[in-house]
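Running log. JK asked me to keep both predictions on one page so they can be read side by side. First protein, sequence followed by its tokens:
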Amino acid sequence: MNSTNEQAYAKVVENGVQAVEAVKELQITGYLADQIFVLAHEKDRTDRIADTADAKEIGIKEEGVFDSLANLFRSRGDELRAKIVSMGFTEAEADFYESELDKGKVLVIAKKKD
């Protein structure tokens, strides 16, 4: 499932190699490095893929201070869903994407600045 709205685009890929390819494709289409985010279920995997792909992780700037602090007390699944919602997706979309991350897949998100 891919989702496109005025604010964000998301693509679920099978692994880190495909995530790097998706990031490169987005850069070719005009997205800047600071507009492309990757998300995996495990934080260290997210870090590695973001570094390799020259993409960002969803952080305080995207989430806001309150959600970022709240994530310290959330389960990983709840944290991931909150991060996805902070990028402009609905709760239902966040549930779907988080379930895909549970399966070991990677989510690539591109979002133009507001």
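And the second, directly underneath as requested:
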Amino acid sequence: MTEHDFNQQLLAFLDASPTPFHATQKMLEQFLAAGYQSLDERDTWSLQSGGRYVVTRNASSLVAFTLPSDPVVTGFRLMGAHTDSPCLKIKTQPEQVTKGYLRLGVETYGGVLLSTWFDRDLSIAGRVSYQSTAGEIKHQLINFKRPVGVIPNLAIHLNREVNNGVAINAQTQLPVMVMQLGEGEKGSFNEILLQQLQTEGVSDAEQILEHDCILFDTQKAAVVGLQNDFITSARLDNLLSCFIGMQSMLSGGDAVASVLVCNDHEEVGSLSASGAQGPLLKSILKRVAQTEERYQQMIAASMMISCDNAHGIHPNHAALHDDNHAPLLNAGPVIKLNANQRYASNSETSAWFKWVCQQASVPVQSFIMRSDLACGSTIGPITSAELGVRTVDVGVPQFAMHSIRELAGTKDAYHLMKALVYFLQIERI
């Protein structure tokens, strides 16, 4: 696959994945098309040497794995990412009518860069749970696709100090305006969802029981710059890594046992049944190993690369970076390090990743946060602690992390995939 083809497929994946549910569905479809067998956690598994398998939980987290040889002997080559991104989530009973405008109340999910959500063409997507005409409880993904709402900014004439920095109140200033009502009309979000289900071909929905819906920006992902240097899109953090991991699995061959885990809920701490601090990955690996001793042997022989985007040095704010650890866009994937274990990288695992990049002819960089600034974290330390597996935290450098629209380089994701493909071919670590 060429870099151009890779990036075009990446853009399509980003546009098709407005929520963790949609991202997981798209990855599941691609794995199944490549011959992976879907497993249900409720069933008895009969895993075969040479088999390729995929499991989902909550329809928002995914684990894909291959078994070409005995993983107890060779260990697993693990890759991790997360499916969720900071966003605005629509409340269960969101209707607010003011001066004839129907607005939907929202909650902030994760560390949202709130100012970027104003004056955007917003749509709605997510999962709807409903009662069918036959009395069954069913679940359906929906995507309005077209712009259906906006959060209008207040004119500068009414807020003269806005350019000096103004706090944003999530309760009162973020409800999204979706409709202007006639006199005596009452807006109902559940009725809106019922109509959307019908539009998307669901004919048996009788009553909405619950929904898990978010707002998203309808502007398409794009390659930008005079020399096409950059990719700009929503949800680069961290669907970019999910796509890289998926393409690495599909391109990496079957030399050794390999795993891709894409967890939900990283942006809110990972503590959930489908998050990295939950039991999903461990339970699957234990079912592969079958006994506790074999599991411990397998983990000791394994290594994990946790992929989550890194902070590239911002040319307008260069002073906020450590000059010696300030990654550039399009200069290769980044090893993320932190003395206080906010990242799981250590000298052993960092050395391994540098060696992998050298073998794959991929440039590599390092990132350490300024010592006087707080550092973020990833699923790396959580998964490493849960499993006891050697782990390195890496990622593609980007700007505008947690904005409604983020920016990365056109070369870095492809470089990281090449490194991961090589990683999946190493017989002993």
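Observation for JK regarding the second prediction: The two ends are 27 Å apart (CA to CA).
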